[in-house]
Amino acid sequence: MKLLLVFLASLFVLGINGQGDDSRWKEYKRLNGKNYNEKLDGGKQENLRKAIFFQRDANIRKHNSGNHSFQIGHNKFSDLTGKELAVFLGTTSPPSPKLHKSMTVLPKRQTRLPTTLNYRNSFCLPPIKAQGSCGSCWAFTAITPLEFDRCRKKRSFSVLSEQQLVDCDTNSTNYGCNGGWYVTAWSHLTTVNGSASEFLYPYKGSKGKCKYCPECKSMVGARVSSYGYIQSKNATAMQLALQEYGPLATAITVVGSFYYYTVGVYDDEACDNLPVNHGVVVVGYGRYNDIIDYWVVRNTWGENWGDQGYINIQRGVNKCSIETYPAFVVSY
C-alpha cells in the first residue's frame, strides 16, 4: 500500500510538471537493459520502477538547471530503491582512532608538488572493474593500489583477486559482500603470503568458500611489504603520497547525487560530516578552470558510471570525508 501511494503521488507530480513522457522511460529501459515483465505481476513492478525513474528524472533536471560545479544524469541506478542502491557500497566502520593514529605515516620524500598528477591512463592501472551488487568495494580499494605498486616495480602488469578477500578475509572488520576495510585487508594479505592472480581466482560477486593456497607459489600475484595511513585531513600529505606511493585507498560518504554523477567537480554539501560508507581509490589531482581543486577518484561501478568509471571530487576541504582515511600499500 505504501509503495502504491508513493507511485500515485509521483504520477500526480509528473502530470503537473509535464514530465511523464513514456518515450523517455522506454528509451531508458532500452539503454540500460531493463525489462519488467508485466504478465508476472500485473504491471506492479513496471509501475513502481517507472515512478522511481521519473522522480529521479525530475531531480536530475532540477539539479542541472542550477548553478553547480557538477552535472548528474541517468544510469543503471535511476530506477532502484534506496535499499537496492545501498548494496553497491561496502565499507564498515574504520578501526579504532588509537589504531588509526598509531599507523599514521607521512611521505619520506618532500619534493615540490606538480600542479597536476594523474595516473588514470597509466599502464599500471587495469580497466575499471565492477563490484556488482556485492558490498565488496573495500576489497577493490585494497587491491588496486597493490596492483599498481607491483606493476611499477616489476614493470609488468598482473591483475589481482578481489574475490580472494571476499571469500577468505575474516578479520574483525571484513565481512565479504557485507562490507569491510581496506587496511585490514592488507593486514590479512600479509598473513597469507600474498594476493592471488585474478586469472586463478576470478571475481564472482558473492561470498564463497576460500580457495586460496598460500603454499602455491604459482597462485601468488603480489605480496604486501608494508602499508599505513597518510596524515588525516591533510591534502598536501596526500598529494606527496600520490607521488611517492602511487594511487591511495580511501573511504568516502556516498549520498544520493553521487550515484548519478556525470561530469564536473563533485562538491555536494549533503555528504559532509556523515559516516563513511564506500571505498574508492584516489589516482590523481588537478584544478578545474583555475577555480576549484579536485581529486581524481576511481570507483568500482563499471565504465558506464560517471566519467568512464571516474569522478572528480573537491580537494582540500575533506569533501565527503575523502581526506580522513587515506592509506598506502607497498608491494614486494
Structural write-up:
The protein is α+β, with helices and mostly antiparallel strands. The protein folds into 2 domains: 2-67, no CATH class; 86-331, Cathepsin B, Chain A (Alpha-Beta Complex), CATH 3.90.70. Helix content is 33%, strand content 17%. It is built from 10 helices and 12 strands. The strands form 3 sheets. Strands 1, 3, 7, 8, 9, 10 and 11 form a 7-stranded mixed sheet that branches. Strands 2-6-12 form a 3-stranded mixed sheet. It has a two-stranded antiparallel sheet with strand order 4-5. A hairpin with a 3-residue loop joins strand 9 and strand 10. Helix 7 crosses helix 9 (182-191). The protein is globular, with a radius of gyration of 21 Å. It starts with a helix and ends with a strand. The model is unreliable at 1-19 (pLDDT under 50).
Largest sheet: 7 strands, mixed
Order of helices and strands: HHHHEHHEEHHHEEEHEEEEEE
CATH architecture of the largest domain: Alpha-Beta Complex
What is the CATH homologous superfamily assignment of the largest domain? Cysteine proteinases
Number of domains: 2
Arithmetic mean of pLDDT:
91
Strand content: 15-25%
Number of strands: 12
The class by helix and strand makeup works out as alpha+beta
Helix content: 25-40%
The CATH topology assignment of the largest domain is Cathepsin B, Chain A
Report the principal-axis shape.
globular
What's the quick description here?
With 332 residues, this protein is α+β, with helices and mostly antiparallel strands. It has ten helices and twelve strands. It has helices at residues 2-17, 22-32, 38-41, 44-64, 82-86, 97-102, 137-154, 162-168, 182-191, 235-245, and strands at 70-72, 104-105, 117-118, 195-196, 220-222, 224-230, 248-252, 261-266, 278-288, 292-298, 310-314, 327-331.
